[in-house]
Design a protein that fits this description.
Elements lengths: L5 E4 L5 H8 L3 E4 L7 H6 L4 E6 L7 H5 L6 E4 L9 H6 L3 E3 L6 H16 L2 H9 L20 E5 L3 H12 L3 E5 L13 E2 L2 H7 L2 E4 L13 H4 L7 E4 L8 H9 L5 E4 L19 E3 L8 H19 L12 H4 L9
Helix pairs in contact: 5-7
The chain binds nicotinamide-adenine-dinucleotide.
Amino acid sequence: MPMKPKILTTLELPSNALEKLKEYFIVEGGPDLIKDRVNLLNSLKDKVGLLTAPHIKVDKELFEHAPNLMVVSTYSVGYDHIDVTEATRRGIYVCYTPGVLSDCVAEVTWGLILSTYKRISEAERIVRARKWVKGIYKEPLGRDLKGKTLGIIGLGRIGRRVAEIGRCFGMNVIYYDIVKPSDADKLDFQYCDLETLLKNADVVSVHVPLQKETYHLIDESKLRLMKRDAIIVNTSRGAVIDEKALIKALKEGWIMGAGLDVFETEPLPLDSELLDMENVVLSPHRGSASIETRTAMLNLAINNLISVLKGEIPPALLNSDVVKVRPLNQTKVI
Ligand code: NAD
């Protein structure tokens, strides 16, 4: 019997997922690989597929160590960790997990909005510090959402869901996006430019992908446009906001607070000033971290990988141009 083709993963896989992959492949690797780049690179030589996540850089250096690689399947919708142009040039299929996590990330975004704007985390810290005193609760007071303006930066899959939930809270919703949606006329949300959004929103929520164009999209000059009693929430990627400028804005009171799931460096460095700031709600990049969503993401990531290596169109292909470099009949190894 011919040997099964080999794939590498940097994920810790549950047994059912591992069993499914083992039907077709010899599966090597595991979460320890993310700590040891040299070992990761050396492990790629004989692999046809890589099942991974944003915890590693999938760049030219990695591809150079992977002469047999035909598919990278990432367990994420964000793909800023992958050099997609280089992958396409080399005929490597890049697959991701759009859609299945949008509701979950939108719900986590709302968790951060509520926690920051209603100051729930700060209040919880008072109780835990055993400082809850008898009498009517006074400080810190939160703010009400109803009638306020929600500003969405990036009205894609996640941004749109955050906007819909905002309407349920009785908020007026405005948005900015590089592409005006085809159904813009039918939406219950108002399009505006970025500056207008920042000047008018009480709650700003960031949902653009991290790219060259969106790196530090929200810099000091943009933060200075925001209202003093507004908050900003980020569940996209840390580097979309200039974190140094954000810390300055929070310290000097240009804005009221921030709810952050993502950071310029992750895990958040232990000396980050954010850790000691009361007006910040911190979350360890867990926007998609629910049982249902993580299961759906893993299923999609595995189906993507298996499909390409069966020579079939995967459910979520990012670089469709790759078929011109390596047609699907050349990726069939199982
Ligand atoms: P999407 O592609 O559906 O939406 C992104 C939107 O941003 C699109 O409408 C696009 O037109 C817009 N956009 C792109 N470049 C822009 C620019 N320069 N200026 C303004 N708008 C721009 O993506 P999505 O599925 O909604 O995911 C959004 C991002 O959320 C992902 O790229 C990822 O980085 C992040 N994310 C984070 C987590 C988490 O755990 N915190 C989980 C999933 C996704």
